[in-house]
Amino acid sequence: xxxxxxxxxxxxxxxxxxxxxxxxxxxxxxxxxxxxxxxxxxxxxxxxxxxxxxxxxxxxxxxxxxxxxxxxxxxxxxxxxxxxxxxxxxxxxxxxxxxxxxxxxxxxxxxxxxxxxxxxxxxxxxxxxxxxxxxxxxxxxxxxxxxxxxx
Length: 151
Hints:
Helices cover 72% and strands 0% of the residues. It is an all-alpha fold.
């Protein structure tokens, strides 16, 4: 990669890292705010998402340092909506996952034709994020509803 593309890739990776770290905070917070009969499986799912987000952030940070960059200490935007109904939490999660997916697509655009390593990483993460989106989308559907959820 040339210097300009390397700088763009590092910036994109740092943005991904910030988004993923925001997800760690978001999912951890959500896991503390779930009440009711279905608390245990939902909390477990949220905690798993927080752990996965941390792993994703770490992977992005490793690539930043591989490319000679400095990993960001920032965390992506966090908005406390005070909405803690499971549906609200899932809708906010859907938006977070869409934001993360956009970050990986941005990286893929920079990497295409410039770095097989970054291309493969971006594609792998796009698959993971699209599966997350699908999972949340299915959770937001009413039982028996085959059509994708739309806000």
